[in-house]
Amino acid sequence: MKIALVALLGLLLAISGAASAYAGPQVVVYNNEACGHCQPYVNELTAGLKATGFGDIEVRQFINNESVRAELSSLQASRKVPLEMQGHLVASVEGGKYLFEGHVPVALVTDFLKNKAKDYPGGIVVTLDSMTSEGPYKVFDGRQVREFSPGQPIGSSGGLQAEGSGIGDYALPFLIIAAPLALLALAANGGKNE
After folding, report:
1. In the chain, where does DSSP find H-type helix?
2. How far, in Å, CA of 131 to CA of 37, rounded?
3. How many helices and strands (H and E) does the chain possess?
4. Cα–Cα distance for residue pair 81/142, rounded to 1 Å
5. What is the per-residue pLDDT across 6-15, written as a single tens digit (0 to 9) for each?
6. CA-to-CA distance for 93 and 155, rounded, in angstroms?
7. Using one digit for the tens of pLDDT, what is the confidence trace for 112-125?
8. Cα distances (angstroms) measured from residue 161 to each of 41, 119, 165, 190
9. pTM for the whole thing?
10. DSSP state of 56
């Protein structure tokens, strides 16, 4: 009798644990219903995700729904998505662990989820805010934003250039500091050359 009771209790705990582990759909697509270019992309994306094994997909319209807009804003804030990477259409995979903002090519998204997602246990944000899915895309890993050419797979090494790492990023701060110092040195010297 005790064994049956313990087994029943274990079964109930397992069932309740499995039920509480489910936090919602595998993928939530936050769709801008005012964008005429988005619906064909959403159709292609959901078909690609389903073919990859993501069957639980929910599309939420956010333009005319304040609570969905607030939900999306909260999700982007929790992932610290830089403002310039926040897209007008967002696919949130695995509770926001992976965010695809804008029209990221479906082949890149599905390839990443099949082959590279496991390499990013902390998640990743990918943005391509072009209606044509052309041009470079940006990746934010929680530390830095990197830009990649359209043919490069998400999660590949390299990139075009990490934002904030070029010499041009230091030129203006250098001038702001150096110019007044040079003027002070000239003034202290009385403008004389020795």
Report:
1. 2-21, 38-52, 66-78, 106-115, 168-188
2. 7
3. 5, 8
4. 8
5. 343 343 344 3
6. 16
7. 999 999 999 999 99
8. 28, 21, 7, 44
9. 0.70
10. -
